[in-house]
Amino acid sequence: MTEKYPRRNFVTRLSLGITSLIAMPITRVADTLKKEQEPMKPVIKNIKPLGFVWKTADPFLFCVHHEDYFPKGNDLMGPDISNFKGRHLGDDFIIKDGFRMYHGKTVPGFPGHPHRGFETITVVRKGLVDHADSLGAAGRYGNGDVQWMTAGKGVQHSEMFPLLKKDEENPMELFQIWLNLPKKNKMVDAHFKMLWSDSIPRYLNEEKTIDIEVIAGKLGDKIAASPPPDSWAADSTNEVAIWNIKMKTNAKWTLPRASAGVNRTLYFYEGKGLNVADQTIDKYCAVEVEADMEITIENLSTDASILVLQGKPIGEPVIQYGPFVMNTKEEINQAFEDYHETQFGGWPWPKYDQVHDRNKGRFAKHSDGRLEEKG
Predict the structure, then answer these.
(1) Least confident of 18-22, 308-312, 331-335
(2) Per the omega criterion (within 30 degrees of 0), is the bond before 59 cis?
(3) 315 pLDDT more than 70
(4) Radius of gyration (Cα) for the chain, nearest Å?
(5) Considering the domain boundaries, does residue 285 fall inside one?
(6) What is the pLDDT of residues 72-113, one digit of tens each?
(7) Domain termination residue (choose one: 291, 314, 337)
(8) In degrees to the nearest 10, what's the CA dihedral of 345, 53, 203, 217?
(9) Could you list the residue range(s) of the whole structural domain that residue 206 is in?
(10) Residue 75 to residue 162: CA distance in whole angstroms
(11) Which residues contact 30 (CB under 8 A, 6 or more apart)?
(12) Which CATH number fits the domain that encloses residue 168?
């Protein structure tokens, strides 16, 4: 049968076809416009002033910035006793005459004490640290070196700050960072590793106005040395990063993005002013940022330093009591019982505030007898 209005039907079908073809891109354009109109999430999540102990985000537990202008040392590698007046030796955490003795009574520092369930990462920018532990390991490190210690199921260690120079002052600056261990690794064997200053990769921009120590993680083509084997940082998918950024005056740099859900904090500890994502940041502030967004940092004044701590959260319960970090109260109680019973291996050194020979250079003696000497 002949169609009565063949041309009209053809035009109608053609019109419907064209309409459907046009409707698809128009819908996509509308969706795009809608997304552009939606407010973007802010790059900066929070800004907080820093104190002596710095608040950190999972997987980190906290960070402490020690900065002491120790005087000339005496024959015992400590300050002259005239500096002890007005101090609470053994519990001296208040700056007096430019320095603190901490728990030291002769030499400043931290005599033997136990840990379980986490890691300590000690980044020494100036000065030296003498290490001794219950496994028989020992070391002297500093002036850019990093010690990474997995406490695991338990270890005692001491961290003393020997004042080797008798004819001039002994300034000290270090960060101690506590990195949590997941439940499955809290009872691993204790272990420590040295990251010597000359082995730490440094990221430099073309103008050499940006100098970044890559202590953990990866930045561009710079990959940090492997952390201890049981560390949360040992799995690269956890995106753990510790970067110490130094910026010249007026330097500008873009921090690359990480994955969504990763925690990232910038600790502005040296300098006068920064511009972070178009927001002015005062000295000695922590800036929590979205890790999955590029962040432009501009130094507004004198040379600046920024410590970056980043990592995928472990996401497990954290119960901390003093030097022990576990997942439950019962595990904390067990840690105390185990320590009282075993002393985590005892103390094989003549004193709890152990310091090494004044003339000894930087070294690390591991519990298996392996020796690293740096001079």
Answers:
(1) 18-22
(2) yes
(3) yes
(4) 28
(5) yes
(6) 999 999 999 999 999 999 999 999 999 999 999 999 999 999
(7) 314
(8) 50
(9) 39-50+202-314
(10) 11
(11) none
(12) 2.60.120.10
Is 70 in the same domain as 172? yes
Distance CA 174, CA 89 (A): 21
159 in the same domain as 140: yes
Q: What is the pLDDT of residue 39?
A: 61
pLDDT at 130: 98
pLDDT exceeds 90 at position 173 = yes
- Answer yes or no: is 260 within a domain: yes
Residue given tokens 């109608």 in the structure block: 12
- Torsion angle of alpha carbons 59, 135, 124, 324, nearest 10°? 30
81 and 129 share a domain? yes
Amino acid at 22: I
Joined tokens for residue 46: 């929070």
Q: What is the pLDDT of residue 41?
A: 77
Residues 141, 231 within the same domain: no
For residue 323, tell me if it sits in a domain. Answer: no
Question: Is 71:79 a contact under the CB 8 Å cutoff?
Answer: yes
Higher per-residue pLDDT: 23 or 190: 190
Helix, strand, or coil (residue 159): strand
Co-location of 296 and 285 in the same domain: yes
Q: Which is it for the CA torsion 259, 264, 268, 274, positive or negative?
A: positive
Provide the residue count of the chain.
Answer: 375
The burial of 368, by beta-carbon neighbours within 10 Å (0-12 exposed, 13-18 middle, 19 or more buried), is given as exposed
Question: What domain count does the chain have?
Answer: 2
What's the CA gap between 246 and 271, in Å, rounded? Answer: 10
How many Å apart are CA 214 and CA 204, to the nearest integer? Answer: 11
Name the burial class of residue 357, with classes exposed (0-12), middle (13-18) and buried (19+) by CB atoms within 10 angstroms of its CB.
exposed
The answer, yes or no, to whether residue 24 has pLDDT greater than 70, is: no
How far is 244 from 293, CA to CA, in rounded Å? Answer: 19
pTM for the structure as a whole: 0.88
